[in-house]
Every structure is written in structure tokens, then in C-alpha cells.
Amino acid sequence: MKCPHCLESFYENWHTQPFSNDSAGAECWFVAHQRCPACRKMIVELNTKTPASRTALCIPIDSWQVYPRGTARSPLSPEVHEQYASDYEEACLVLSDSPKASAALSRRCLQHIIHERYHIKRRTLSEEIQGLIDSKQLHSDLNQAIDAVRNVGNFAAHPLKDSNTGEIVEVEPGEAEWLLDTLEQLFDFAFVQPARLKQKRDALNQKLAAAGKPPIK
After folding, report:
1. Among 87-101, 137-151, 175-189, which is the least confidently predicted range?
2. Rounded distance, CA 154 to CA 133, Å?
3. How far apart are CA 146 and CA 155, in angstroms?
4. What is the 3-state secondary structure (H, E, C) of the chain?
5. Could you tell me how far CA 216 lies from the centroid of its own chain?
6. Cβ distance 65 to 2 under 8 Å?
7. Is 70 a residue whose pLDDT tops 90?
8. Phi and psi at residue 10, in whole multiples of 5°?
9. Which of 181, 187, 180 has its CA nearest to residue 76?
10. What residue segments make up the domains of the chain, in order of their start?
């Protein structure tokens, strides 16, 4: 698994401790915890299970990560504007509690970037994604990642995702994570790389000016 604190991968080694059954005995509750061998921080989950029989081990039903809150992702570069970073960071924070809410925040963030950074506004998010792809402003890998947002999210089955991007609706498996991954790629392409290229160009122009030569454009 990947540590939600430091993102290092390691083999799971959960320690579980039962603490309660419900009134009908249909479910049993456990606390599961382990320590990341890389950063040495604790990871804690609350699990609910159902007994298969009087003698069998409990069968897992569901689990919730209670510490840390959310899942760590690579920190955003300062070049990413706050208006986009805030939605992204909140989407990361609520991912483990509500993938639906996380996906809604990510869709809204994606649409905001398409509107403000690429000046594309259409009737639906799907049409705006297509408009961005058709504009040929992105590299092919990022085009494919953004185009997959429509397919992974199954926009045809959930039209509110397309027409009202901030609506909290059902999500497909892996959809919320895919949106966050796609936003990270788009942030890097749209904000980080241009800012770093400008820094390098400005530094080179200073050297050229000191040597009495014309700047590059």
C-alpha cells in the first residue's frame, strides 16, 4: 500500500483490535492500525465486519481511514493559483470520507481552469473538454487524461456531472482519484512549466544583456 502521510509504498501489516458488536450481533467493529516504516507515522482505520458463522472469522464489510484525515498527495507548486489550489486541496482532504464530494470539487476546478486559463466556455463540461482538445493547446498524454474524465465518470449515465459540475452525485470506481491525477497533470502543464521556463529565459536574458547581446524572445 502507499502511505497516506509520505506516499512511500510498503507491505501492509495491520494490527486489529475488536471493541464492539451491534445490538443484534450482525456486525462487529474493529480498530486497525499500522506504522509506516518510512516516515514512522501511524495509520488508523475503523472497520466493520459481519460474522460468517459462530466459528468463522469476520468477513469485512467496510472501512474508514480515521488518521490521517484524507490522503497525502504531492504538494502543489506555488505557481498554481490559489483559486484552483483551494478546490484541489479540499478535494484531496475529503476523498476518503466522500469520493462523491471530492469528484464534484475536482470537476468544478477542471471547468474553472478551462474557462479562465484557456478561455473556453460551452454549454456543458463535455463540450468544453472537447473544445480544449480541439484547440491543440495540450500534449497528447494530457489530452487523453482529460478526455478520459468523461468516460471514467460515465457522463451519459450521470448528466448532472456534465451540466452542473459541482453537483454531488454517484461516482464510478476510481473516478475521484482519476480527476485528482488529471488536475495534477494539468497544473504542471498550465502553470508550473510556463513559470519555470520564464524564470530560465529571464536568467538567460540577464546574461545576454551583461554581454551586450540582444535578448531571446
Report:
1. 87-101
2. 18
3. 13
4. CECCCCCCECCCCCEEEEEEECCCCCCEEEEEEEECCCCCCEEEEEEEEEECCCCCCEEEEEEEEEECCCCCCCCCCCCCCHHHHHHHHHHHHHCCCCHHHHHHHHHHHHHHHHHHCCCCCCCCHHHHHHHHHHCCCCCHHHHHHHHHHHHHCCCCCCHHHHHCCCCCCCCCCCHHHHHHHHHHHHHHHHHHHHHHHHHHHHHHHHHHHHCCCCCCC
5. 38
6. no
7. no
8. -160, 165
9. 187
10. 27-32+42-50+57-70, 82-193
> Do residues 155 and 126 lie in contact, with contact meaning Cβ atoms separated by under 8 Å?
yes
Report residue 73 as a C-alpha cell: 498527495
Strand order in the sheet with 15-21: 15-21, 28-35, 42-51, 58-67
pTM of the model: 0.71
